[in-house]
TrEMBL record, chains A, B:
Quaternary data: Homodimer.
Top enzyme category: hydrolase
Superkingdom classification of source: Bacteria
Entry's EC annotation: 3.1.3.89
Protein name: 5'-deoxynucleotidase
Gene Ontology molecular function, alphabetical: 5'-deoxynucleotidase activity; metal ion binding
The organism of origin for this protein: Streptomyces armeniacus
Gene3D superfamilies, per the entry: Hypothetical protein af1432
UniProt key word Isomerase: no
Domain HD/PDEase: 50-168
Amino acid sequence: MDDEPRSLLADKTPFPDDLDARLRAQFTFLVEVDRLKTVLRQSPLAAADRRENDAEHSWHLAMMVAVLAEHADEPVDVGHTVQLVLLHDLVEIYAGDTPLYDGAAGLDQEERGAAAADELFALLPADQTRRMRALWDEFEERRTPEARFAKAMDRLQPLLLNWMARGGTWRTPGVTADDVRARKALIGDASGPLWAAARRLIDEGEARGWSRSAAPGD
Amino acid sequence: MDDEPRSLLADKTPFPDDLDARLRAQFTFLVEVDRLKTVLRQSPLAAADRRENDAEHSWHLAMMVAVLAEHADEPVDVGHTVQLVLLHDLVEIYAGDTPLYDGAAGLDQEERGAAAADELFALLPADQTRRMRALWDEFEERRTPEARFAKAMDRLQPLLLNWMARGGTWRTPGVTADDVRARKALIGDASGPLWAAARRLIDEGEARGWSRSAAPGD
């Protein structure tokens, strides 16, 4: 993190001075999070030849929650789970995206994420700072059925995009089908049927050569 | 609408034949809605020099619901309101975006939207087709506090982006500040404080010349 205070998007066109202070803080945050639309992920879209951004990804997860919640092993509150996925990547506005198959970048991911959460959520009125941080912590800690299901969607969504792309990030150099299975196993913490379907897609992708089978000695 | 059956994204890389039928229908829908990421709106992003797409827009509305729900004149269920905004633009996948200030295009918008909803939601298992359609109808009809608040967010979000762009679509030829006030008045059906703030931004934008004041005889 820099020592310099970060310049905010809202500073470019400041809101009128007489705007209510609480609303000004909320609008400032809501403008700042526009940056999520510019954080690119590794995943290729199914509908166009470009990479996905974090805002699109978060929206897609929320749709998946609404459609797939019935497959959760423990009942989940759909509205609450949707809120978890909507904000789970917000900290990447300041911390950046960490590709799933980049082991080194993952090492300090937690620390960078927490610092980014502190900075971003502090733009809100204090009561909302606490509430957003609690939701973000809930997602990260995966101690509730909702958080486990939200995390499962975060793993399943790029798997569907990789399937559509006939490989996608499964083709990352050095990554094997077993690596994919290991990274996706969190789906099984939330839903037996979805984990079975995910494994079916991973197995079939490996059989078709869209991911690399581990060679002897790997 | 064409008479030819529309080809689906999922047809490009069909799921394995032995996938459970209900899951296959749900995955097919969830892949098809990837198209929302390619439907461009008129609004310019605050964070980058490009237009916004519908998936990003829908995500942004959901964040606004989570942060601004306290300003609703009638209490709203945040989780339910978030679900309304997440799917409110889905039908544009097949019906296209209708710019707010394009009066002619708005005429058959309702009819095209309903036909697109029928086609898109029919990809889901029948019980979910009905549920999604009910949510979409709820948003369109604005008879619940949640639907009115969702609609208010749909009007307020591009207003914030236009403010940041110092005009944005307010500069559309033929559009006056009074047109903007008229199109945004739905915000007032959901929240007095948010409508007051919106009017303040519209008034200030007009004073700064970011929108056109109605000339005598207009």
